[in-house]
Amino acid sequence: MTNAEPTNASSETPQRRGFGVDVGGSGIKGGIVDMDTGQLIGDRVKLPTPQPATPKAVAKTIAAVVKEFDWTGPLGVTYPGVVTHGIVQTAANVDKKWIGSNARDMISSELSGQDVTVLNDADAAGLAEERYGAGRDATGVVVLLTFGTGIGSAVIHNGILLPNTEFGHIEVGGKEAEHRAASSVRDRRGWSFKKWAKQVTKVLIAIENAMSPELFIVGGGVSRKADQWVPLLKNRTPVVAAALQNTAGIVGAAMAATRDVTH
């Protein structure tokens, strides 16, 4: 029996790793990602989001998270708004000082010039869910919607991200989609899932009429109770709950940094 050692060595593929940071309203969390499986390698680190959450303060906190792991490779970071070429364009639910700031350069300067990719948080979640989560077997156009304080969105076509869609701000029946169907609207008005699902259906149909996706993935905290409201939806396109939950942002950010999907 002959088994040449060089053949064995060459057949072993080294583990591909990435690093992502997910910036949220209450916490900034990051970790190392196995890019073959979409699983975190070891524990994540979470630090409180500084208040006020100014660009400089957040950049310092992101750097502190990264330094916990001694990570020096490409870094992906999520932001809750529109980002183009590292420049923040909107700040709907965060400090207005973010608008016009070069988040990519600001974070990089806190990390000795490390390579940084910044992308919308829903886009990051969409990338992760399409590759490793609820959309991993889907083809064609997949739309992820996150239901929380507002409605975030991501559109992926066969693994390619169309960045910075803002379906939460489209007009549906004379009202912004997120003012009609965000999870916060249901909480504030004390609606049943049945009543809220009617509003979500209107939003999904509006998106269907515009782009005919193959699949909707619904995320956000309310997706944990998807069995109570997804079956009540009356739109045409299949709807499934997000699978990765609170790791999706970290995983998607790492994907963006390693695949350069936003450049």
From TrEMBL:
InterPro entries reported for this sequence: ATPase_NBD, ROK
Keyword annotations from UniProtKB, A to Z: Kinase, Transferase
Family membership: Belongs to the ROK (NagC/XylR) family.
Name of the gene encoding the protein in the UniProt record: ppgK
NCBIfam families for the chain: PolPhglucPhase
SUPFAM superfamilies: Actin-like ATPase domain (SSF53067)
UniProt keyword Transferase present: yes
Residue ranges, annotated region (Disordered): 1-23
Highest rank taxon of the organism: Bacteria
Compositionally biased residues, Polar residues: 1-13
Designated name of the protein: Polyphosphate glucokinase
GO molecular function terms listed in the Swiss-Prot or TrEMBL record: kinase activity
